[in-house]
Amino acid sequence: MTEAILLVGGKGTRLRPMTVHTPKPMVPAAGVPFLTHQLARARAAGVEHIVLATSYLAEVFEPYFGDGSSLGLHIEYVTEREPLGTGGAIRNVASRLRSGPDEPVLIFNGDILTGLDIPALVDTHETSGADVSLHLTRVEDPRAFGLVPTDPTGRVTAFLEKPQTPEEIVTDQINAGAYVFRRSVIDTIPTGRPVSVERETFPELLATGAHLQGMVDSTYWLDLGTPQAFVRGSADLVLGRAPSPAVPGRRGDRLVLAGATVAEDAKLTGGTVIGTGATVAEGARIDGSVVLDGALVEAGAVVTDSLIGAGARVGARTVLHGAVIGDGARVGADNELRDGVRVWCGARLPDGAVRFSSDQ
Ligand code: GDD
Ligand code: MG
Q1: Domain named Mannose-1-phosphate guanyltransferase C-terminal: which ranges (predicted)?
Q2: What are the tens digits of pLDDT across the range 321-351?
Q3: In this predicted structure, what is the pLDDT of residue 142?
């Protein structure tokens, strides 16, 4: 297997401010656009040719990754005029593939951080003789995912995308968003209209007796689809829990990028990343968080499991816990923001405006 398709499109996200919504593939995780981790892992597994299937923000990928040679890859870009869905996006790039009809093609969702053993998935595919092989992982609450029950040999028996009723929750095995397709199966997806690989292609393949094989691999796996998950993923990359050849520098408690300024007595722990040109003032404590480029964390602020957007300011002694501060937002001194709160990009919060305790 030497080529892969990476899915990085989708509906209606183009105009949304970056940090307060679904993180975009170019938001830096552990110092590099998070797509880099998947690209580097694919390369390490022997992939040489990658087609990036996108429907938005295409213009940001190419200037950064170019022809892929800096990663040892050959990258091509295909932009859909209207989002074609996951299956439509795969079909839409078929003409760019070089593999023969029986050869395996790796396909993966662009919003996943994973330690998947890619060669093992390819191996499973080849030894089982499957038409499509899927990486499966187990999660506590499978409702936001594609459920994939298998028989004792690992053969997929059904594919239930985003189950709605308790009766539909028949397994805790979910589609982890990485597949190996036999090349010729890609050519059977209809052209010229949106197709969901999860809602249409997989169920139809199963109905017509095709062989779908599941490989349950309980390695590191995280869907980065929310800012909170993104913060977790970034910290795990820095700590070395999520394996990636693309993390700059050594693994450890913190990653301070070139051009950041951190006061000597500031404490950075739990895989915190401080972006280029960001400043952390005296006595600030930042744990398991992402501080993007040019942001300012003032003296004595206490930041935990939070995302601070590019150019944002967090005032002195302010406490952030599981908070998302949008790009360019200003949070005054002595605020206390917790539990999934999102301060919109560019918003202003005065000193002492939000607190959870009544005593100050
Ligand atoms: N090019 C292109 N065009 N890409 C698309 C399109 C499209 O129209 N729609 C979605 N994608 C890409 C997304 O950018 C993402 O990388 C991937 O396909 C999956 O789409 P999501 O919208 O993130 O789907 P999801 O997270 O709700 O569910 C998917 O991922 C789960 C695992 O995280 C499904 O594959 C589930 O079955 C799976 O469990
Ligand atoms: Mg997703």
Answers
A1: 254-333
A2: 999 999 999 999 999 999 999 999 999 999 9
A3: 93
- Among 2-6, 217-221, 355-359, the range scoring the smallest mean pLDDT is 355-359
- The DSSP 8-state label assigned to residue 116 in this structure reads -
Q: What is the pLDDT confidence band of residue 15, given thresholds at 50, 70 and 90?
A: very low
With contact defined as beta carbons under 8 Å apart, do 171 and 88 qualify? no
Token couple for 116: 């998947």
Cβ < 6 A, ligand 1 pocket: 7-10, 53-55, 80, 83-86, 89, 109-112, 145-146, 161, 174-175, 177, 198, 223, 225
How many of the other CB atoms lie within 10 Å of CB of 264?
5
Pocket test for ligand 1, best of 109, 147, 161 (most atoms within 8 A of CB): 109
Please, what is the Cα angle at 155 between 90 and 166, to 5 degrees? Answer: 85
Query: How far does residue 299's CA lie from ligand 2's centre (Å)?
Result: 37
C-alpha of 181 from chain center: 21
Pick the atom of ligand 1 nearest to 175's CA.
39
Q: Which two tokens stand for residue 150?
A: 């298998």
Q: Domains (ranges, CATH) in the chain?
A: 3-223 (3.90.550.10), 253-349 (2.160.10.10)
Average pLDDT, the chain: 93
Q: Over the stretch 266-293, which tens digit does the pLDDT of each residue have?
A: 999 999 999 999 999 999 999 999 999 9
Which helix (H) or strand (E) segment holds residue 290: the answer is strand 290-291
Nearest one of 224, 188, 291, 301 to 38, comparing CA atoms: 224
Decide: 311 and 326 in contact? Cβ < 8 Å.
no
Per-residue model confidence (pLDDT) at position 225? 83
Q: Give the gyration radius of the chain's Cα atoms.
A: 22
Residue 145 Cα: closest atom of ligand 1: 39
Burial 19-57 (b: 16+ CB within 10 A, else e): bbbbbbbbbbbbbbbbbbbbbbbbbebebebbbbbbbbb
Is residue 23 over pLDDT 80?
no
